[in-house]
Write a structure and sequence with these properties.
alpha/beta
Amino acid sequence: MDRLHLDRVLFAPVGVQPLKRDRPQAGFADRVAMTRLAIASEPGMELSLIDEPRSDGRPNYTVDTIRALRATLAPDTQIVCLMGADSFLSIGRWHRAADLLVACDFAVAARPGFDLGRIAGALPATVSVASCDSPPGDTLVLCLRSGRRHESRLCLLPDLDEAASASSIRATLYRGRQKPAVTDSPLAPEIDPRVAGYIREHGLYRDDAVR
């Protein structure tokens, strides 16, 4: 938020993630509840239900979510999609990737040891990339273009690395389930205690319960 001078950050749990439909996960209502707990004391961070399960049962596609979000905002509002570099590397597999990449701006944070030079190679063939004027500091800005008039900005944040990942946290939770129960022991140190309490109370992320 500070680096990009954002007024607010929306956390939008996804109803049906099309690239992860075969993976066990917590149900949408549980993920909404955990998100609300995690950001409750964070100024400028808000829960959004714009990516809730669709009434027609179709997967939630980010390009549609951005379009729906933009319809609720003033025409000149800047939208920035925040993600980690590992997620961005799969962008070519996303629904209507070329349209998505110019539908809003993007900010990509690296993981430790990640080569941000791989970012350009992840772009669809129809999207071109060029350097843009970057602000002082460690933020690198690239311009993305698809077609003649559609352009967006891609901000690379190499110093905002975070070693924790969702996969490693879920693995920690699973291992914790295999040990004798200790009610006051943390499930995973990266998790807010309120969220950890919710996970424990509702029995989430167990191999025998897909919620």
